[in-house]
Every structure is written in structure tokens, then in C-alpha cells.
Amino acid sequence: MSGSDLKLLSAGAVKRGVAQVAADYERATGTHVSVEFQTAPELRKRIAAGDRADVLVLPPAIMDELAQQHKIVADSRGFVGRSRMGVVVHAAAAAPDLRDTAAFRKAVLDAAAVVYNRASSGIYAAQLVEKLGLAPDLRSRAVIVDTGAAIMEYVAAHPGALGLAQISEVMVLMDRGCPVKLAATLPDEIQNFTSYDAAAMTGAPEAARELARQLASAAAKKVFAATGIA
Q1: d(CA 168, CA 28)
Q2: Residue 214: inside a domain, yes or no?
Q3: Which of 93, 145, 161, 183 has an alpha carbon 20 to 30 Å from 33's alpha carbon atom?
């Protein structure tokens, strides 16, 4: 990596917005930005194992850990936005009633399979299923995959399945022509918001701080809002 290159590691749920802001920054400054997306838990493991980047976009809990370890520049950290969760079904399937928690429980019990991932949103989905007392009924029908994209791919191949995913990730796959649709957001009383921060890693060049600040800027928030991150 040359002095005019930056490496950015980001959680996948904010992929569209991060990619656009990084591309805009590259055009404006001439600094090449190499962007890699993965689930937040996997990125946490990679960084703990010694992987390096110039800029990170991750949930606040992981950023707090990195701050305590002096791995990020404190004054470069800023709020990017937050993602809501929704229910995704096959494009040809009837959207289930999801007006409240009781309706959500029924939709889950009626589904041929319930799919979620191993990322932050999937951890919440597993906790929600447990909290609502649905775990025993789902033992043979719960499908746990690695990524948000894999949720949509499974639902696309199994029309009776119901996916629990970040709305921003659903939008990405729908834009690519994946035959799924967003049935609804989770009801307010069980909704989960996953927040994301941007920060430069310790030892990164000044350009990394500039990019981190750009990702958390008012202009960037308009970009993220159009991708389902508010």
C-alpha cells in the first residue's frame, strides 16, 4: 500500500453508503481507497489477530474495545448511522401480517424456515426468538448463515422461508435483482437498531482521519439515509 492508498474495513450492513462515500472521497482527493466488507464479529476477530487498516466502520461496542486498546484515534471517531431490522420473504410470496409482536410470532411459527446470520443483527434475532419463547418450535427450522447476503440467497431459493435481516442489506440484494422483498420492518416494540461509527486506526496517515470524518459528515448522512441507514 502506497502513501496515497487507504485501506478501509467495514461491517457489511452499511456497504452501499460506505462504498459511495469512499468513492466520492477518492474522486475528490485522488487518494485510492481499498474497501473490504465483512461481518462485524469477523472484523473484530481479524483486528484482534493483528490485521491492520487505515479506517474502520464498526458498531460502537467494538469501537469502544478498540479505543480501550488504543487501536483507534479518539478524535477521528464519529457516528455514521444506524440500521433497522426487517422481515424478508420471497418476491412471489404473500407478505405476512407483522403489525405487532403477536403477529410476528405467528409469522415465525407459520414459516417453513426462519433464517438469520452470525453478525450483530443475527445475534439479536437469536435473542429475540429465545425471548419470545419460539426457540423450541424453531429447533428444526432455524437456518443460521454467515452473512446478510446469505439470508436473502436462502430465502430466494426457499419460497416458504422468512428471513430476519438488516433492511440496508435487503435493499442491496433487491437492487441486484435477488427475488426477495421486504415484508415489513420489525414491530416497534421488538425493533433493534444497530449503530455504526467510523474511526481512523492508530498510526494511520492524516488522510485516514479525513476519510473517517467524511464518513460521519452531514453530507454522508444524506447518502446513508438513501440506503436505509439513518
Answers
A1: 26
A2: yes
A3: 145
The three three-digit cell numbers of residue 32, written as one number: 485510492
Tell me if 191 sits within 8 A of 85, measured CB to CB: yes
Over the stretch 190-226, which tens digit does the pLDDT of each residue have? 999 989 999 999 999 999 999 999 999 999 999 999 9
Helices (H) and strands (E) in the chain, counts: 10, 9
86 touches 167 (CB < 8 A): yes
- The number of distinct structural domains making up the chain is 2
Q: Is residue 178 part of a domain?
A: yes
| Position 230 in a domain | no
Question: Cell numbers at residue 54, please?
Answer: 487505515
**pLDDT tens digits, 132-175:** 999 999 999 999 999 999 999 999 999 999 999 999 889 889 98
Looking at residue 65, which CATH number applies to its domain? 3.40.190.10
Residue range of the domain that includes 124: 83-190
188 burial via Cβ count (<10 Å: 0-12, 13-18, 19+)? exposed
